[in-house]
């Protein structure tokens, strides 16, 4: 029985990785194409800003989709969770800014931008995974 459970969980995690790629690939590809065409740090920073906005929209899409059709009890708990996450994100971004401002060179602004983007990207994917975690059909 344990063996069947482990095999089932491994299959589900493989499906989750593939599904992550389905929603992430278009946004990640757009960012990569933008960076490939950027001629300077300012243009690269603009790429990260646009990608961050796109991922923030995706996060909101995933959040609304997760809430859709759920119980009021779940919705309330999820709203509390999201408010806490937003506070965490803001505080973490402030700490990140402080950290990278200590460094010499313009590249660190891009490193900070990518790090911030990844926080939002990861949360959008987490919400997507939660929403789809009970889909046993694949």
TrEMBL record:
UniProt signal peptide: 1-18
Domain of life: Bacteria
Gene3D superfamilies: 1.20.1270.180
Domain Lysozyme inhibitor LprI-like N-terminal: 34-127
InterPro entries xrefs: LprI-like_N
One Pfam match: LprI
Keywords: Signal
Name of the molecule in the record: DUF1311 domain-containing protein
Species for this entry: Candidatus Pantoea formicae
